[in-house]
Amino acid sequence: MTPSIAIVGASLAGLSAARALRARGFPGPITLIGDEPHLPYERPALSKQFLHTGEPISLLEDHSETTALDAEWLLGHRAIDFTPGSARTDTVGATAGSLADRHAGTWSTTSGAHRVDRRDEHPAADGSRHVITLEGGGAVVADIVVLATGARARRFPDLPGAHYLRNLDDAARLHEMLRHTRKLAIIGAGFIGAEVAAAARELGVDVTLIDAAAVPGSGALGESVASACAALHARHGVRLLTATRIEAVLPGAVHLVDGQRVAADAVLVGIGSLPNTEWASSANPLLHSPNGFPVDHLGRTAIPGVYAIGDCARVADPVTGGHSRTEHWHAAIAQANTIAAEITGTAPPPRTAPYFWSHQYGKLLQLAGDPSAATGLRVIDGALDDESFTVLYELDDIPVAVCALDNPRLFTRHRKQLDRALAAVH
Q1: Coil, strand or helix: which one is 131?
Q2: Cβ-Cβ contacts under 8 Å for 101 (sequence gap 6 or more)
Q3: What is the CB-side half-sphere exposure of residue 259 using CA atoms within 13 A?
Q4: Whole domain around residue 128: which residue ranges?
Q5: What's the pLDDT tens digit per position in 136-195?
Q6: Is residue 411 part of a domain?
Q7: What are phi and psi of 125, to 5 degrees?
């Protein structure tokens, strides 16, 4: 029998899972559940061009693709509880957690046998199927569940009126605020803070970036490259205050513990995120961990037939055995393809190097690989104090990561080499 699939989360990770499942031949019912009323949209644009123009954000799919996916969309419905079903021994495949019927490499198509029931008053009476309870009443029942509920902005305590940037509504408020603000203080100089700082400066706003780290971004980029990015801010007139903390935020000013006072008409907070996991993990110890749903390298949770991907997933590294949560576009798509292969029993996608990009001051910053694994840094083009550079992070003279500012051609060449090296050993 063909199982039904419910994907909780209708943004990039959830949509990518539906796409990958259909691309790999899954014919059964798919339901996407999203708490926002919008179809999936381009979130990276929220901290970039949208702040300039306020023009509509592009959708991640068009109407023709929506039809081709043949999925049910439940938008504006928040999932508030999750009840796992018992393991289905009649449909579990060769690997734990897979519910594919892999006979002769194809899916059976028993009509309606595992159809998703929406707003069922008495769901899954036999206890064999997973139940997702929705806010306001009703439930979705499915044989396989993909958890893709993303993350939310980490809040700064006791700071009413501060701006955050995580979704389209946040971006709309921030866009309107920037039209009327002369002085903006940004708490947190990570990639969200940096991108908003760049957008605000281009709109003529006076910007101060405040961060507790001595060199913001050094954890992701390494100290040398992070220092080069800090210098880019300085060249564009951003005031960067580091190795300091907030004492108080009062009307018109941010007070720091070192005694400095930063004048500010508005405050944006960008101090990281928290995965949206409590709704499912609070009653399910197997889904609980300090920072995301714990999954193996194939995206499988400890509950058969339940997967997690995207910003809410804490994924095991098959080499180191450690777990990490990666909040980047590329990771969400790669994880979606991995679980789709596992569910359908098709060939897994080749492993590729982690990748992300950022647009700041009209420049493209790109990173692929794992800089934390490097013991050395080598500049192969340009200079770190210049408007363009490319660097290789190396472990015993072997590249493990590459980063480039405004040099996409050379970056892409080395990124492909990293991907080929990973594919050869995994």
Answers
A1: strand
A2: 1, 2, 91, 93, 107, 108
A3: 0
A4: 5-151+274-344
A5: 999 999 999 999 999 999 999 888 889 999 988 898 899 999 999 999 999 999 999 999
A6: yes
A7: -60, -30
